[in-house]
Design a protein that fits this description.
The complex is a heterotrimer of chains A (371), B (221) and C (284). Chain A has 371 residues and is α+β, with helices and mostly antiparallel strands. Chain A has helices spanning 8-19, 97-112, 145-159, 210-217, 254-287, 323-333, 366-370, and strands spanning 35-39, 45-50, 53-64, 75-82, 122-124, 128-140, 161-162, 165-168, 171-174, 183-184, 192-199, 203-206, 229-235, 241-248, 305-308, 311-316, 340-343, 349-354. In chain A, a hairpin with a 5-residue loop joins strand 13 (229-235) and strand 14 (241-248). The two termini of chain A are 51 Å apart. In chain A, 35% of the residues are buried. With 221 residues, chain B is α+β, with helices and mostly antiparallel strands. Chain B is built from 4 helices and 10 strands, in the order βββββαβαββαββα. In chain B, the strands form 2 sheets. A 5-stranded mixed β-sheet of chain B has the order 2-3-4-6-5, covered by helices on one side. In chain B, helix 1 (74-90) links the parallel strand 5 (60-66) and strand 6 (100-109). The longest helix of chain B is centred in the last third of the chain and has 29 residues, at 188-216. Chain C contains 6 helices and 12 strands. In chain C, strand 1 (35-39) and strand 2 form a beta hairpin. Chain C is elongated, with a radius of gyration of 21 Å. The chains are: A alpha+beta (371), B alpha+beta (221), C alpha+beta (284). Chain A: One of its GO terms (biological process) is nuclear polyadenylation-dependent rRNA catabolic process. Chain A: One of its GO terms (molecular function) is mRNA 3'-UTR AU-rich region binding. Chain A: Residues 326-335 have a biased composition (Acidic residues).
């Protein structure tokens, strides 16, 4: 990861306005950026945007052999990927610390919290189970990645449907989605993570953007008290804590955590309701056979947008089997004798050699170089 | 070839929809849908890169292709190679020596003509990033079915019935072939006919580029 | 002297040659390098071939294995092709995982073989849903001096043409497999795809097509690998890939296709002569 430098000017300004009760984008302390969820054409693919932060999640499944210690449970993999698309300072093909951290947070929230009914993914005990794989791609990094990524993961998992399976004796047939209705994944509870930025040891900001995140985790040069950090809290819809993680400076009082938890639990509940509503409305649209596709996220109210429907062109209709032309071409190419000899030289070997006099060497002498 | 055969036929490309500057952090980005096929491309550069990768003559171009789900495959490297070679001929790299340009492509939906959509989207993202280019480029895909009929910008159903599929990339100045790749077997005549049709159809894509740029740029409009 | 000139003015050096209608290695623009083909070179492999096109040398070995076919396609065997570019073949490569160019070449070779339909994968099936042949075709480049795909396809096809499959009997009751290596049948190969590489160079307003380019020429024409690869099988085009280089005009393309067609015939002849020569040897 290339270094991103934060200027003192920016840092001081953000610190100053935050302590005066303002934020750079005009939000209040507890206000989140607008959340938007859109689905792709396949089951289990969605793009979640939180302000400018955008994340793509895709769930895929395959049949594998279960682990020996858990012979009747399916598997869940979460894979977070970040490439230069997210932000220019991220290098390609290299795991960044941030991506590893994000991956671990999501694993804690969705794998370790046991929100997915893994036993329902079993097909034949000790032989065949479904393995779900969630691929999370960060498209645009503008702060609060964990919240955006966790909403994307949750939405994708809840939206995903796996193909139906029939067992007859030893053989297992997997039905195509067109043949038989696919089965949705069973989720016991819906965890969502959220980030709270702590400024000046006691100011809490919900949903920090990239600049606010980097300001609150950076140290202050003039040697005064280190000011803040990032608190990640994950709640499910029953207001149970699933994840908690603090990075940055140590907390000065326990009250801050309590204050943060109160705000976060309500927020997570709201988000879960929103996710459920989005999935239901998507499902009714699909039932009406409305084609849902990522092309719907391309809006038209933007200056830099354009859509064209009628792309018609009149073209001359050529005739492919134009016999006459072929004959002429053949007549042209026939008389030329081959310039090459084919010889069977050694056992198991054949050679093509250029006939003598096919080309001549010209020496470019040193005289001609100088002119 | 067949000059007396001048009956004109209607050909159609699937509707195109595009948004430039879709991503705020990249220097240039575009999302493009051609029918149901969607691609997202971000361009970053020229930026500072490691000494070992620097070239004193021109910008180092890096192309990354990221599929929607699953692990990276060998086929992805081929797509990267195609797009890198296309960009390399188009970008005036000698204006940005000792720097790097990164092009990242994200697959969104693949419903036929995906690579063509990626290439067109890349061109829009490069225009959006404001990099100096020799020419713009446009890709058109086509499919030849068992009867030898040529279908421009094929949908998945047409692809399934096709004997061969071809994608051609043309430059905006002389409409010469920048890049081309084919799948399946076909006769020479079918190849040259498909090439000619795609060459004419590429004008539609170039017009699309011009329209979108003139929409937001007062200088051109 | 010439070597120093080449270092100081690399572009002018190349242009000087081209303006005299000759290439730095003494060939005419459309002239290909000499080809040497040897089959059954590796005794440990089930089929093998070595080809030398100019300096470019590629060895291909085919290994046979039995496997269960995929559940979705129970009547289909497998043809796995892989191109290896070890550091010994060129100073451009370093030890380690396969480079991008090796992966691109692998994809190109696999695509050409699949598109030409020269091998019907159903021929590799032995018992429905139970048993099928896997052909592991490994191509190792020993010396990479340009036009790599041509050499890979040639050596692969020569190997496939000499490949014989032993008789396999399968008992559905006991699920026992027995292989009889003394009874062998030839693998059915339909046609002979031949790939021809070209480099495209813009020289004084005119586009030049260089057939069978060396690695130096490929580099001068803007990149790793050839700019245009066309492939013929039975007189039908089964692939035409163009990357980079100068842009291709219609005339240049016609020129290239004509050369490729001629070359396809010549290469077909070499492979035929070579295999006849080889069969004579066996029957002696």
């Amino acid at each position: 990861m290339r270094d991103v430098y934060l200027s003192n000017c920016e840092k001081n300004f953000v610190n100053k306005i935050v302590s005066e009760g303002h934020r750079l984008d005009g939000r209040t302390y507890n206000e989140s950026r607008p959340l938007n969820i859109s689905f792709g054409s396949e089951y289990g693919s969605c793009i979640v945007s939180l302000g400018e932060t955008k994340v793509l999640a895709q769930v895929s499944c395959e049949v594998v052999q279960p682990k020996q210690i858990r012979p009747n449970e399916g598997l869940l993999y979460i894979n977070v990927e970040m490439n230069p698309m997210a932000a220019p300072h991220i290098e390609a093909n290299r795991q960044t610390d941030l991506a590893v951290h994000l991956n671990r947070m999501l694993e804690k929230a969705y794998k370790d919290s046991k929100c997915i009914d893994l036993e329902s993914l079993c097909i034949v005990v000790e032989e065949k189970v479904w393995s779900l794989r969630v691929d999370v791609k960060i498209l645009n990094h503008d702060g609060n990645l964990i919240e955006c990524a966790s909403i994307a993961t949750l939405t994708a998992l809840a939206h995903f449907k796996r193909p139906d399976v029939t067992r007859s004796g030893d053989s297992v047939t997997i039905h195509d989605i067109t043949e038989k209705d696919p089965i949705p994944t069973v989720l016991f509870h819906y965890p969502v993570c959220t980030t709270i930025a702590i400024f000046n040891t006691d100011i809490l900001l919900a949903d920090p953007n990239f600049l606010e995140e980097s300001v609150c985790t950076s140290s202050i040069d003039d040697g005064t008290t280190p000011c803040g950090g990032l608190l990640i809290i994950g709640f499910n819809q029953y207001k149970e804590i699933c994840v908690m993680n603090l990075s940055g400076a140590a907390l000065s009082s326990a009250g801050i955590v309590r204050k943060g938890l109160q705000g976060a639990s309500d927020k997570c509940k709201e988000v879960v309701d929103l996710v459920k509503k989005a999935i239901i409305s998507d499902d009714t649209l699909r039932r009406k056979r409305v084609k849902i596709n990522f092309s719907d996220i391309i809006t038209q109210d933007h200056l830099q947008c354009l859509s064209k429907k009628d792309l018609n062109i009149k073209l001359k209709h050529y005739n492919i089997d134009d016999e006459v032309d072929d004959d002429i071409m053949d007549a042209d190419s026939d008389p030329e004798p081959s310039k090459y000899d084919v010889v069977a030289s050694k056992p198991q070997t054949a050679e093509i050699q250029t006939k003598q006099g096919a080309s001549q060497w010209i020496e470019i002498s040193s005289d001609s170089e100088e002119d | 070839m067949g000059s007396d055969n001048t009956d004109l036929k209607d050909f159609k490309l699937r509707p195109m929809k595009c948004e430039c500057n879709y991503l705020s952090k990249s220097d240039g980005s575009a999302i493009l849908s051609q029918g149901q096929t969607v691609a997202l491309v971000s361009v970053n550069g020229p930026l500072d890169i490691k000494m070992t990768n620097q070239s004193i003559e021109k910008a180092t171009l890096e192309v990354l292709f990221s599929s929607k789900g699953g692990k990276p495959a060998i086929g992805d490297r081929y797509k990267e190679h195609v797009i890198r070679q296309t960009c390399e001929t188009a970008i005036l790299g000698s204006l940005y020596p000792r720097t790097g340009i990164t092009v990242t492509i994200q697959e969104m939906e693949d419903y036929g003509g995906f690579l063509a959509c990626c290439i067109n989207c890349t061109c829009l993202a490069l225009l959006n990033a404001g990099l100096s280019m020799r020419h713009t480029f446009a890709a058109v895909a086509c499919a030849i079915d068992e009867l030898g009929d040529i279908q421009l910008d094929p949908a998945p159903a047409q692809l399934a019935a096709a004997r061969a599929t071809m994608t051609f990339v043309f430059d905006s100045r002389n409409k010469t072939l920048v890049c081309g790749f084919t799948e399946g077997s076909f006769s020479e005549d079918a190849h040259s006919e498909a090439l000619e049709r795609c060459r004419s159809a590429s004008q539609l894509v170039f017009d699309f580029y011009k329209d979108i740029v003139s929409k937001y740029s007062y200088v051109i409009g | 002297m010439a070597e120093i000139y080449k270092l100081i003015h690399p572009v002018k050096y190349f242009n000087d040659y081209l303006s005299r209608k000759i290439r730095p290695d003494g060939r005419a623009f459309h002239e290909q390098r000499n080809i040497k083909l040897n089959v059954n070179s590796i005794k440990a492999a089930d089929a093998s071939a070595v080809v030398k096109c100019g300096n470019t040398t590629v060895v291909c070995g085919i290994k046979l294995e039995l496997a269960t076919p995929k559940a979705e396609e129970p009547d289909v065997g497998f043809l796995v092709t892989n191109v290896e570019l070890p550091p010994l073949c060129s100073s451009k490569y370093r030890p380690g995982p396969p480079t991008d160019s090796a992966q691109v070449t692998s994809t190109l070779v696999a695509d050409i073989i699949a598109n030409s339909k020269c091998i019907d994968l159903k021929d590799l099936s032995i018992v429905h849903d139970k048993l099928a042949w896997v052909l592991y075709c490994d191509m190792v480049c020993i010396d990479n001096d340009g036009s790599l795909v041509d050499a890979c396809i040639m050596t692969l096809m020569a190997s496939l043409k000499t490949l014989t499959l032993p008789k396999v009997t399968y008992d559905p009751e006991t699920e026992e497999i027995s292989v009889d290596t003394s009874v062998r049948t030839k693998l059915n190969v339909n046609g002979l795809p031949v790939a021809t590489s070209f480099a495209l160079y813009k020289h004084e307003q005119s586009n030049i097509v260089l057939a069978d380019p060396s690695s130096y020429e490929e580099e001068m024409c803007g990149g790793i690998g050839a700019n245009l690869i066309t492939c013929y099988n039975n007189g039908i085009l089964c692939g035409s890939q163009k990357f980079g280089g100068c842009n291709l005009s219609i005339e240049c393309e016609e020129e290239a296709l004509k050369i490729a067609k001629e070359r396809a015939q010549a290469v077909e002849e070499v492979v035929d002569v070579c295999i006849k020569n080889y069969e004579l040897e066996i029957n002696k």
